[in-house]
Design a protein that fits this description.
binds coenzyme a persulfide; 14% strand; alpha+beta; 11 helices; 383 residues
Length: 383
């Protein structure tokens, strides 16, 4: 057992950090204020391969693995959580689903442009009336005589949908069986297919730079060759994609927490009260020590889940444990960073204010903390 990164992953981490520091950090505050992702930054992320990290080079990917991807998620989210979720939804929820379930033709046609940085992906699962309860989905796809499908329904909180090209959309294709066997995944062209309406960005508390809209499908005709995996196999594709995605969100949480801790330490060294810097008070030292320990524990859980996925081992429960713990750490550490910095921490001028708002969503999206507990307790043979 070796808890250290090898040289190759250390190098990747270094490259991700310098990109994040030089290209993302300087504009993170403005993107949050504007509630819009900077499209020049998006183009740079595409150009430098941030959207294909864990996929094979033969398909246009970066040739790294899920551990390398977790490092990128941590380093980008350390300065801007909106970049983290943009990468996560594209990579885990859209690309991983096609990579693991697509035919060779689908991979060539739809996956290659997504991972070589030509196109952006998103994931249409959550609906206004079906969040944690995926089987409550109401979006339907009806088969036509020529084998194509007609898609009707509405998906909410579709990250990246404001600029994405390709979406993995889940719809009920058979109401006579439970949705776990009656849901099908389709590869949809958001910009090309007729009948798709994309709302304005939904106003949110945090990750405000990320694109997040309601996508409505009104009699959208989807060709037969756009079915991903088997007809009726959509629930499992959604669950597997989310299992993988949760490792990314755990890494994002670690990044947010680390970013807030770094900012808190910098401030506590410079800020004097009662005649000495804040770091000279034992109360600050002990709280900062607790934060560092929590972050390191969250990071190790995240790496453990990523390595299990890379080794082809079961990782669903590990991913849930990592996300449950790391998202709680992100909320705790950012809350403390604001508290340590007092009135300044509460001001928009300092990034911890944004980080505190951003942290909360990690306990909600890609599976709430309660859903993580369902997954973990379900594996414990308690009944
Ligand atoms: N991987 C593969 N298969 C899975 C799976 C997984 N991680 N989890 C469940 N399944 C399978 C089960 O084995 C079962 O298969 P069979 O019908 O062949 O027995 C089937 O799927 C149904 O499983 P289950 O009964 O556990 O499904 P539930 O409807 O009770 O849902 C939860 C379980 C709540 C865990 C699931 O719906 C979930 O993860 N919800 C959260 C969704 C989410 O994260 N949304 C955020 C989206 S971000 S936009």
């Amino acid at each position: 057992m070796d808890f250290k990164l090898d040289k190759c992953h250390e190098l990747q981490r270094h490259l991700f950090r310098s990109f994040a520091e030089n290209e993302i950090k300087p504009i993170a505050k403005d993107m949050d204020e504007n509630e819009a992702y900077d499209l020049d930054l998006l183009a740079k992320l595409q150009k430098y391969g941030f959207f294909g990290i864990p996929f094979p080079r033969e398909l246009g990917g970066g040739g790294s693995d899920n551990l390398g991807y977790a490092l990128a998620m941590e380093e980008c989210s350390r300065v801007d959580a909106s970049t983290g979720i943009t990468m996560s939804v594209h990579t885990s929820l859209c690309c991983q689903a096609i990579y693991h379930n697509g035919t060779p033709e689908q991979k060539e046609k739809y996956l290659r442009p997504l991972i070589d940085g030509t196109k952006m992906g998103c994931f249409g699962l959550t609906e206004p009336g079906a969040g944690s309860d995926v089987q409550g989905a109401q979006t339907v796809a009806t088969k036509n005589e020529d084998g194509s499908w007609t898609l009707n329904g509405s998906k909410i909180f579709t990250t990246n949908s404001g600029f994405a090209d390709t979406c993995t959309v889940f719809a009920i294709t058979d109401r006579s069986v439970p949705a776990s066997r009656g849901l099908t995944c389709f590869i949809v062209d958001l910009k090309e297919m007729k009948g798709i309406t994309i709302s304005d960005n939904i106003e949110r508390m945090g990750i405000r730079a990320a694109s997040n809209c309601i996508v409505t499908y009104d009699n959208v005709v989807v060709p037969a060759d756009r079915v991903l995996g088997k007809v009726g196999g959509g629930f499992k594709i959604a669950m597997q994609s989310l299992d993988s995605g949760r490792i990314g969100i755990a890494a994002q949480s670690v990044g947010i927490a680390q970013g807030a801790l770094d900012e808190a330490i910098k401030y506590a060294k410079a800020r004097k009260q009662f005649g000495k810097p804040l770091v000279a008070f034992q109360n600050s030292q002990f709280k900062l020590a607790e934060c560092q320990t929590l972050i390191e524990a969250a990071r190790l859980l995240t790496w453990k889940a990523a390595v299990a996925e890379d080794n082809g081992e079961p990782f669903s429960v590990l991913a849930a444990e990592a996300k449950l713990f790391a998202s709680d750490v992100a909320v705790q550490v950012t809350r403390y960073a604001v508290q340590l910095m007092g009135g300044y921490g509460y001001c928009r001028e300092y990034p911890v204010e944004r980080m505190y708002r951003d942290a909360k969503i990690t306990e909600i999206y890609e599976g709430t903390s309660e859903v993580m507990k369902m997954v973990i307790s379900g594996s414990m043979k308690l009944k």
